[in-house]
Automatic annotation (TrEMBL):
It comes from Streptococcus infantis ATCC 700779. It holds the Pfam family CsbD. Residues 3-52 form the CsbD-like domain. Coiled coil: none annotated. PANTHER family: UPF0337 PROTEIN YJBJ. This is CsbD-like protein. Belongs to the UPF0337 (CsbD) family.
Length: 67
C-alpha cells in the first residue's frame, strides 16, 4: 500500500469537495478522476506485491526440495 497513492486519493477528494462547494463541475470531475486513478494505481501495486510474494514462496519451496 503506497502512502503516495493514499495522499493522492485524499488530494483528489479535497479537490472534488472544493468543486462541489464552489459549483465548479470541472474541478469536481478532475478531483474524482484523480481519486479513481490513484486507487487503481494502489490496487495494481498491491497485486504486483502479492504476485511477487507468491513467486518468492514458490522459489523457496523448490530450494528446500533441492537441498
Amino acid at each position: 500500500m503506497s502512502i503516495e497513492e493514499k495522499f493522492n486519493q485524499a488530494k483528489g477528494s479535497v479537490k472534488e469537495g472544493f468543486g462541489k462547494l464552489t459549483g465548479d463541475t470541472k474541478t469536481q470531475a478532475e478531483g474524482a478522476a484523480e481519486k479513481v486513478a490513484s486507487k487503481a494505481k494502489e490496487v495494481v501495486e498491491d497485486a504486483k506485491e502479492a504476485v511477487e510474494g507468491a513467486v518468492s514462496g514458490v522459489k523457496n519451496i523448490f530450494k528446500k526440495d533441492g537441498e
